[in-house]
Specification:
Arc Repressor Mutant, subunit A; alpha+beta; single chain; four-stranded antiparallel sheet; Alpha-Beta Plaits; about 20% strand; about 40% helix
Amino acid sequence: MLDEKDMKILKELKKNSRLSVQKIANNTGIPSTTVFNRIKQLEKSNVIKGYTVVLDEGKMGKNMAAYILITVDYNLLKKRGTSQHELAAKLKHHELVDDISIVTGIGDIIVKIRTQDITQLNEFVTKYIRNIEGVENTQTSIVLESF
């Protein structure tokens, strides 16, 4: 169970995972040896699964983001001997896919992608996703702004 000290340390790491133990200690008021030991324990217990970077996708040529809600044809998947999870895993490996989740509600799978432009988005939806067996319907929402 996480306590208040763990939560303070995690909050600092979420802001900047490159912070030194000493800087986290200064920001939280927790002794540096405690911070060090807590981080190691959080890593060991898989609360911290890894460290990552936040990219400026626009500077990488991926200027457009979109969410694609997919409705799955379960009967077809069943006939083909596959599952919603296998369909999601297939989508996850496409180079444009940033994130994918199985969801409840109107659709079954939601995919976040980043593309260069509307043409690349159109090709991804109409020529790739809609041609995957088991995809019944798609609904695409283009991201106007992220926070």
